[in-house]
Description:
The chain has helices at 2-12, 51-54, 72-77, 117-136, 138-141, 202-216, and strands at residues 63-65, 91-97, 105-112, 145-153, 156-163, 167-176, 181-190.
Amino acid sequence: MQVRWVVTLALALSGVFVAPGGAQAVPGFCPPICDAIPDSAWIEPSSIPLAPVYRWPALAGVAVTAPAPRFEFESWCVTPSSAADPRRYAVAARAAVPNPDGQWNLQVQVIHWRGDTVTGGKAALETLEKARIALATCHLTGPGASPSITTSEVDRIATVISDSGSRVMRAYLLADPASSTVVEVVLWTTLPSQVEWRAVPDAQVLDAMATPLCTAYLGSCR
Length: 222
């Protein structure tokens, strides 16, 4: 299975993507609702780390349009933007829950490529692979940023980033080629944090990110 995704990823570099567009979460499923992120695509709030402390809201209710989205870690790593970034042509929405200094902030993004899943799946895998490269070079592009990758698989990444000892981030990235979708869940806080991080297995969070995509994007179940 992993070999198949590696081959797919290699083909991604020559992919062609559909025209730009984006909208916030809406009721329904895809199809027919494919020009916006269906509200069924979001991770369950109870599955997000620190849920017992923060009681995260239903994300569809706070989601907004995210044109040409970028991952939160890219701002810490000062990752250069690219005109060829396939996220420029995706439908995307972002849900954010900000908190004061010393408390954990939350951001979740769902990024979806419309059209056939061969092309969209390539875009999803390419996006994840470029994120992996950006994390590997983060210490070069973002002075003070020090990432530690805790999970690195063909379709998923988890990382912890410390930034000059003044703040820390926990980020989870998932690519689901079957639904042409990438999901980001990221939490960060300034230091010292008033709420201690409660360890959760990476796989548990990443699996929870993947589960709703099967429902939201009909026909994508494996």
